[in-house]
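Open question from group meeting: does this chain pack into something compact, or does most of it stay loose? Before anyone orders reagents, we agreed to write out a predicted structure and look at it together. Recording both the input and the output here so the notebook holds the full record.
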Amino acid sequence: MYISNLYMTIYVCIILLIVIFFITMIRTRQLALIHKIYFVAAALLVTWLLGMIGIRYTAPDQVDRLMILDAITTLSASFIPPFSLLFAICYTKEYDTYLPKRYWWLLAVPTLTTLMIFTNKYHHLYYKVFSLSSTEVRFGPYFLIHSAYTYICVVFSIFIIIRFAIKTKMRLHILQAALFTVGSIFPSFINLLVVTNVIQSTIALTPISFSVTLFFHGIIIYGLHFFDIKPIAMQQLINWIGDGYIVTNQSGLVVSYNRAFSEVFGEQYHVRENVHLQECFQDEDAENKAALYNLLTAIRSCQESHTKVTYEQAMMVPKNQEYMKCFYMIEVTPLIIKGNICGFLSILRDITQVKKNMQRLQDSQVKMMEQERLAFLGQMVGGLAHNLKTPIMSISGSVSAVENLVQECTISMNDPEVTDEDYREIYSEMDNWMSRIREACSYMSDIISAVKGQAGNMNVSTKEDFSLAETFKRVSLLLRHELLNHQCTLKIAGQLHGENVLIHGDINNLVQVINNLVSNAIDAQLPDGNHDIIVRLDKDDQFLKITITDFGSGISDTVRRKLFQEMVTSKGTMGTGLGIFISNTVIRAKFDGTMWFEDNPEGGTVWGISIPFDNVTFISEERS
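Structure tokens returned:
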């Protein structure tokens, strides 16, 4: 069989291109199963071409040698289509390092073909008459099986790739599938024309037709980055289909993304497939492309750490012909094969509604705090009226006494029996009564200040340094009537060795919490028990501790399991369950502290408040 020098040149060029392909692929990436299968198919093509070169330099009369070389070329030609089918299966499925055994049965027919071609002289099932010319060769019955299986493998490989591209509905995948189809079907079409004598040619033409395959496959491999990132990410993306996603390779090339991502990032920042993210970001647009810059930074951080990177991003997103501020949780995950990163999967989850729900929850907590505060004020109204009645009556009596003294002075002005000493005595009594009026007014002012603080809106509380002494003073004033009615005594102990304690925050918040704890302690008193309620100050290495100790009935097991976690009360219909729950919320939100409780060994309960030193200042009495 004559093979022209042009054919030989094409053969050598194809072999060199395949060798260069091998070298570049091995040097630039970690080989996965999909790469290895494609390499085997390419190596089979090289073997085919080498067999053709061997035929070129073999004399026509050396029939046995020509049959062996032809068997080598047939072996290669029979295995290439099944490996192409295996490649399509690995590409569209999640097979990365392992291919199920059932797929390897696809190589059974080409293995049988190899056996048939090498033993043909014993059965003539492949060749009835051997010849390298398409016009002289006569094929046996097995050749029909071999040919049918070869074309079936080619058709199925093309079908699988096209179906995958249509299913993903991604322009890049569709373009890859189209070029893959043309490159794969062209050699089979030429071979069919040669075998059926539509084209008068030798078998030398079929391997040359693979130059078209190399051309189109070269475009999708090097131009469309067919091997840079595989559908290994597709299965992971199924769980995120409602969110935006983008898949990039190691160098930041955009491989694919969905519509949700396009609406958020793509349209604003002109992100497109087969374009590097860096090309979408210009220095002069740094302020307007902060979100894209943060995504690039996260991908680089993910590449360096080989771990998932998660961050929150606020963006102005066009919705309903206007821009709305939305919040996204962006998660960048490395796609790792055998310890090496082959790409990145970035997920965008819209958490705008979550943010709104959190704000509603916070607003609800504020409303509950207001309800508890107002309920507490309602309970104190009777006691406050009694507390104010006492100083008012004192002022009224003092005023009457002063009026009597004034009248006495007026009557005795010209009385010779009234001496200067008598006037001084009257003035002294008037001064004493005025002092009592001032004391009563001061007491009333303290009560009014305490009530005014509790009546204020907790949502607009101001943070400043306040003393614990003032806090306890307000608690004593607000609960004075309740303590007296229940014959309880509020004792302040443990002054931290003479140090004055200042806390940063709103004094009214802490007053409300301590009021609630002391009020609960009053309600828990036993008729014949110790009615002392002790407020004690202490500290450790990190926290200021305020404890309220009572000697009452304690807390039942049923209630203690639910405290701090839900609204629960031990007072039956008389309790709302808001007190402890809200108190714990206030301490955490307003003072970064915690609440706790334990049993009092002498009976009753010890409630504790721990406030970190970041919000506490200790001043010695000497300095103050």
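Observations to bring back to the group:
The CA atoms of residues 154 and 185 lie 7 Å apart.
Residues 232-350 form a domain with the Beta-Lactamase fold (CATH 3.30.450.20).
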